Amino acid sequence: MTPNSLARRLIDRFQHGLPLCAEPYQAMAQALGCCEAQVLDCLQHLQVAGTLSRVGPVFEHTRAGASTLAALAVPEDRLHQVAARVSQYPEVNHNYAREHRYNLWFVLTGPNRAHLDNILQELEHDTGLMPLDLPMLTAYRIDLGFALETTP
């Protein structure tokens, strides 16, 4: 199995439904017919190449506590500095640049709304920028995935 073939099969099979067990990478390898080291090497290669940003769960926000989408209007010359500051919080599970006045967007998840408010206040204090706070009012489950392998 070539590294490219393994990457495609890995992404196809595990875009959804990562194994919930003590050794998930071993379970993934078993399902793909390879060894755990190959899975880990493949994931590392995808991350280094910029193809994969993270492997991990996405929680239903109402079960995890509280969640909000936030944005900052960051001067271009400070974008990397402010993004690095935002990413220091373990509560941030997405952080990305956009071409817009509000050019840095991130998702915060925490135990309760007060916790999120504290983080937003800290970020405002530390950066001098006022976060745009956009809590979800209605949930829409998209569950998006893309097939990479063709099936007959």
TrEMBL record:
Residues 8-50 form the Siroheme decarboxylase NirL-like HTH domain. Pathway: Porphyrin-containing compound metabolism. Residues 66-133 form the Siroheme decarboxylase AsnC-like ligand binding domain. GO terms for molecular function: lyase activity. Pfam families: AsnC_trans_reg2, NirdL-like_HTH. It is an enzyme of class 4 (lyase). This is siroheme decarboxylase. Involved in heme d1 biosynthesis. Catalyzes the decarboxylation of siroheme into didecarboxysiroheme. Belongs to the Ahb/Nir family. Its EC number is 4.1.1.111. It catalyses: siroheme + 2 H(+) = 12,18-didecarboxysiroheme + 2 CO2. The lineage of its organism: Bacteria, Pseudomonadati, Pseudomonadota, Gammaproteobacteria, Pseudomonadales. The keyword Lyase applies. Keywords: Lyase. Probably forms a complex composed of NirD, NirL, NirG and NirH. All proteins are required for the total conversion of siroheme to didecarboxysiroheme.
